[in-house]
From TrEMBL:
Protein name in UniProt: G-protein coupled receptor 54-like
Listed InterPro entries: Galanin_rcpt, GPCR_Rhodpsn, GPCR_Rhodpsn_7TM
Membership in a protein family: Belongs to the G-protein coupled receptor 1 family.
Membrane-spanning ranges: 6-24, 36-56, 76-94, 114-135, 164-188, 209-228
The G-protein coupled receptors family 1 profile domain, residue ranges: 15-271
Gene3D superfamilies found in the cross-reference section: Rhodopsin 7-helix transmembrane proteins
Gene name of this polypeptide: LOC118411947
A cellular-component GO term for this protein: plasma membrane
GO molecular function: G protein-coupled receptor activity
Keyword field: Cell membrane, Disulfide bond, G-protein coupled receptor, Glycoprotein, Membrane, Receptor, Transducer, Transmembrane, Transmembrane helix
GO biological process, one term: G protein-coupled receptor signaling pathway
Subcellular location: Cell membrane
PANTHER family: GALANIN-LIKE G-PROTEIN COUPLED RECEPTOR NPR-9, LEUCOKININ RECEPTOR-RELATED
Provenance organism: Branchiostoma floridae (Florida lancelet)
UniProt keyword Transmembrane helix present: yes
Amino acid sequence: MPTISAVVFLVGVTGNSLVIYVVTRFQEMHTVTNYYISNLAVTDLAFLVCCLPFSAVKYVTFEWKLGLSMCKLVHYMMQVTVQATCLTLAVLSVDRYCAIVHPVSSMSFRTKKVAKILCASVWAVSALLSIPVAMNYDLKEEVYYGRRTYCEEMWRSVAGQRGYMLYTVLLAYVLPLACCGACGVLIIRRLLTRMERHPAQQRNQARQTRRTTCIIVSVVVIFALSWLPNHAINLWRVFNLNAPITDAIHAVKTAALILSYSNSAVNPFIYTLIGENYRNCLKKAVLCCRKSNPHSRFSSTFKGSRFSYLSSSKKKESVKFSVRFAPVSKPPLEMKT
């Protein structure tokens, strides 16, 4: 798990950081939809940072060594970021539906101010609804090849634990998935209707429709498949508290966790980096970085000497050609192998 977790972590952090940078850096990316996409990148980034490293460490050490405060804080932030990610996906799907199906009438409420308020509301609601997690996590000592300390859920009643798990699956999986699926179906139907009404533009619209359809279907399918195993195992566990945890179940749970983390690593590539506007902004950023690095003295001296030699040869004059290299005390770091 640590190796796979490291790959997922690096890919997710890099992709989501690029999305946040592009939306923040370039003025043309300050649109309503990109506000939701950048908020999704923030939630995915926070989810990866708050969840994946601690899960990997717990998998290696088989115990919790960070104390009670971190036990409550880490699992609380896990719940907050999971809910914020799923709710942002639902809000983003509704925004895309309004922009494509009702482009004119939605202009009155599809504003940057409303987008900022909704993004802040997603975080506030997720923070409030996750408080029971912080209240019901505690340290527990058990004997497993010696005395070990674990950070586990310790609810006062089984009914409360099962009720909160059902609520989590409903709010963080079923409702967002239903919202994304319904909006996707309505968007695809609208695009197909436009193609029938304007047959002259059928070729261009068909290409755009296929691209939009692929993105929508990919979002729904990847979200459903990424989170289904983890939620299924959690539901099975909460309704079978006395069932033994075998090595097979432990392996399946680990794979389900990695799959759910992978969703946050894949999201930026689905929503943004495959888009033309994002690619253009990334190219601008790369060009700016290249322009900010001055040419080395060696390149300047060599080019100047080559130019002098060519000029002299054109005049058919006898010249004594010499190349003066710039003194370099130490090779640059990039040249070291």
